[in-house]
Design goal:
two-stranded antiparallel sheet, single chain, Dihydrofolate Reductase, subunit A, alpha/beta, eight-stranded mixed beta sheet, 28% strand, 19% helix
Length: 195
């Protein structure tokens, strides 16, 4: 069975974006060797248009073949004409406001995200990447099998959290932790068995 992985960047205090959705404040953490290292390890998580710059334009998908996004995650690219950001992946966008007119390679659905994920998990293929955002992650928390958290050495003090959901503690176990370029920390957690 395929697994759902929430692969996301966050501040030390657990915010994935500013209150208005902006994430430019992460830029100082994305310099030097960090992005090339990330591109080598997770090439499919780079937008299609940026893959050539890191020498992974033709790299095969090794970890994920499907990406899930909420309307808030998909929207910034759409606003600048990037309606097919991950052409090398199957793209599913959860939205009740978007309809026809977007790139046909991007699946827009208003269906219950948990139902969609359960169906996707039954299909053959590589893993499913939950790109964001907080509302979608909150809805899918019971379905998330793995967390890969790119923690940047920044404290935001407020903003959009990793998850926006009702209080419902879920146990995960640490499977990997390493400091990479710029003091960024990548931690990997697997869903604890007894849930």
């Amino acid at each position: 069975m395929r697994k759902l992985t929430y692969f996301v960047g966050t501040t030390i205090d657990g915010f994935i974006a500013a209150p208005d959705g902006d994430f430019d404040f992460f830029a100082p953490c994305l310099t030097g060797d960090y992005l090339p290292q990330l591109a080598a390890e997770y090439p499919e998580t780079l937008p299609t248009m940026g893959r050539a710059a890191f020498g992974v334009a033709d790299a095969p998908n090794s970890r994920f073949d499907t990406v899930l996004m909420g309307r808030g995650t998909y929207g910034p690219g759409l606003a600048v004409g990037l309606d097919n950001p991950y052409a090398h992946l199957r793209q599913v966008v959860f939205s009740r406001s978007l309809t026809a007119g977007q790139d046909q390679a991007v699946e827009i659905t208003a269906e219950d995200p948990a139902v969609v994920v359960r169906k996707l998990k039954q299909e053959d293929g590589l893993g499913i990447w939950l790109c964001g955002g907080a509302d979608l992650a909150g809805q899918l928390l019971p379905e998330i099998d793995e967390l890969i958290i790119k923690q940047y050495p920044i404290v935001a003090g407020g903003g959009i959290p990793l998850f926006r959901a009702d209080f419902s503690p879920r146990a995960f176990r640490l499977t990997d932790s390493r400091v990479v370029a710029n003091g960024n920390l990548i931690t990997t957690y697997a869903k604890a068995a007894a849930q």
